[in-house]
């Protein structure tokens, strides 16, 4: 009895302490920001594309030591990178579209298309038209005239997003060039990765809006607006999330999912992911979701936790509040290790060592975000590999890059007879070179369903 009394006193004390504590960058999203229509999005997206081409690309070409960069596409078989370079609305490359970026002596970059059509005002064409053979011949003439020493093309053995040049187009390119310039073709891998991972000031001004929208829709879904305990299923919540985003003209880049941890499930401590799907949501359940959307060409990836109050409860149990605090502590350990020049593998190793020293059972699987959900940049752990990740984990951390701070912690819940539970968190943040800032705050309080 004395032990039980002591535990209750400790939990009450902890609850008061947690209520008084304001976790750094914690934020609840209570209002939906304005969401632009497809038509309204064109101008800001194109402003960001133009800004990147004018101000970022010259620096990255200099950094990659490339004199020319070729991005070659065929209709419906486009290099994924193509859509980050062209103005909206662009749905596909037209016929064969040859984009050329040529570095000038002053460091600026001339850009144009060797194609049947110009692409808006960003890419005038230098070809008057003709047969396919004449188009490739014209490209060879352009290259010969500028005489670049290093010509970057999008081929890569290890990075999918830097490997967008198809085998057929690669063969055609080599066949069309004099041998002198065939020998100057090199992988543009470093340029592509840096182009994809680097966020401009204009992009960072709008990125928080995308994340705020995602977090607000989760808050709606994890409320009594959507959930009636004893009736609503996790599958119904998943489809609410999907259809709510679609109604905002925002298509998720993966199907949202929702799962439940429940007293009596009694998962093993070493279970990789705790939680079951396709269940009716009941009082006393822990619920979890994972969603990702893209807005203004920038993608999000967010995981948050909710709790369904039992009839005799007015707040989340103290043990769950403590579990959330441990999750936030793990986040702090991870982000404190973000330092320019460190590899993803080193950040992971430091995080694991410090988490273990703090007696936190954690798993880290953090990834870059940007034009796609699983973007280019340093991999910081994988859910099925908590050791070094070759190649992607060896990539170094650069400033002005965005990450999904993703992972989980495991702990025992006193209120559930010390059953093991898992707090799975994922919040989007930018590393500015000195500190990690959450783009729309992070979850430090439970979503509550009554």
Could you list some keywords that capture this structure?
450 residues, alpha+beta, Creatine Amidinohydrolase, Chain A, domain 1, 2 domains, 16 strands, 34% helix, disordered N terminus
Give the CATH class of the largest domain: Alpha Beta
End-to-end distance, in Å? 31 Å
**Sheet with the most strands, sense and barrel status:** 5 strands, mixed
Second rung of CATH, namely the architecture of the largest domain: Alpha-Beta Complex
Strand order of the largest sheet: 3-2-1-4-5
Order of helices and strands: HHEEEHEHHEHHHEEEEEHHEEEEEE
List the SSEs and their pairings.
Blueprint: H1 2-20, H2 38-64, E1 68-74, E2 96-103, E3 109-113, H3 132-146, E4 151-153, H4 167-176, H5 179-182, E5 185-187, H6 189-197, H7 201-221, H8 234-247, E6 257-261, E7 286-291, E8 294-295, E9 298-299, E10 302-308, H9 318-336, H10 344-357, E11 361-364, E12 367-369, E13 401-413, E14 419-431, E15 436-438, E16 447-449
Parallel strand pairs: 1-4, 4-5, 10-16
Antiparallel strand pairs: 1-2, 2-3, 6-7, 7-10, 8-9, 11-13, 12-13, 13-14, 14-15
